[in-house]
Design a protein that fits this description.
The structure is a homodimer of 227-residue chains. In chain A, 40% of the residues lie in helices and 20% in strands. With 227 residues, the first copy, chain A, is an alpha/beta fold.
């Protein structure tokens, strides 16, 4: 399948590499292609510059947000929260229309330092903002409650015996995404929380997630719902 | 130990009954003793009126918030979120001074119907509001992420293999509470998230908790942190 991934950070790279590995045609999108390629410094986490990553994943194409959204039959939003709506506006509503948009973003606000707060929460969510702004896209919120390596490889932790959540208004899109998550990444435990307003709940998991990362000293953990 | 429990609802009753069962001297506190006893109707969940419950637990004393706070060497706040600060004000700061106050409340706002929103969240929490208003109390937030029967009997679910969190500014008070949770209720997995600001994280679990209760059709579940 042709898959478009908006965002060239760690999450976008991880999703893109996994999908390319399993044989999909992948384009990864950025605001400014030449600026993204011109950056030759490692990021703040010590990851290599994007150009080096792209050379190591040479089946993956790089494009603008609009080119990437036009290319993909299914799209991922892997941009940072503050950048999500601007990135999708640059992608262009007509390139999103009728397509599944898998939204991994979180509304984290680091402007006051650590720990971040959420710039939207409680009575609204970033997923809802995206769905309202682009009503013809089929937004499905998922994967936003995990560190990137676990998103695409849940089996490395307790053989995948932990939980993932999906939220969205379009039942067919959610069913398709649940299938993708199983087939592409190996997710076994996926709970459909309900419509897109239930994304408030998963976005509001971030504050405890961040505290647990500090306490545990690793992001390689996940929540399991024990019944 | 003499233990005071503020709040005569389902959570307060459950905690009080368990502590009385294991031999503690328990007083349960309410705003208006005669009004609480005069209520002869079942609550909206079908639970019997408070007077009937009290007759069935005849070692438990009923008092005002102030009497209960004065009686308890350790106190539980099991009032509804909107009522917590008024209840503690009625209890009286001098009756709270220097004592451990185990805060189970959640800032749920049902005024706009279901699902509730939180009346404080993100950059503040109800636990912080309580700690700021009563600086001489040693507030430890815990148990607020569970349905009442699980609070006092975690072993009924997966033999207790699921997680509880504590937040608070006083290290000695947290250590004592962790001991109580183990000894009184049988909790095995307790994570100290950090200072009282980390209660934002556990209070912000409520939105997904409520959605999961709807999806699963039961409140008898809990989160386990899988590493």
């Amino acid at each position: 399948m042709n898959i478009g991934i908006l965002g060239t950070g760690g999450v976008g790279q991880t999703i893109a590499a996994k999908l390319a590995d399993i044989g999909h045609a992948v384009m990864i999108g950025t605001r400014d292609v030449s600026a993204t390629l011109a950056n030759t410094t490692a990021d703040r986490y010590g990851n290599p510059p994007f150009g080096a990553w792209l050379q190591a994943h040479n089946t993956i194409r790089l494009g603008t947000f609009a080119e990437t959204a036009a290319f993909g039959e299914v799209l991922f939003n892997a941009t940072v929260g503050f950048g999500s709506i601007p990135a999708l506006e640059a992608a262009g509503e007509s390139n999103l229309a009728g397509k599944i948009l898998i939204d991994i973003s979180n509304p984290l606000d680091f402007s006051q330092g650590m720990p971040p707060s959420l710039f939207v929460s409680n009575t609204d969510s970033l997923a809802e903002q995206i769905q309202r702004r682009f009503p013809s896209a089929k937004v499905v919120k998922t994967l936003n409650t995990l560190t990137a390596p676990l998103m695409v490889n849940p089996a490395v932790l307790a053989d995948g015996d932990h939980d993932l959540f999906v939220s969205g208004n379009d039942a067919g899109a959610k069913a398709a995404v649940i299938g993708y998550l199983r087939d592409w990444f190996g997710w076994k435990r996926i709970t459909d929380l309900g419509d897109i307003t239930t994304a408030r709940g998963t976005e509001m998991l971030l504050p405890i997630w961040i505290r647990l990362m500090g306490t545990l000293g690793t992001g390689m953990f996940n929540f399991k719902i024990v019944r």
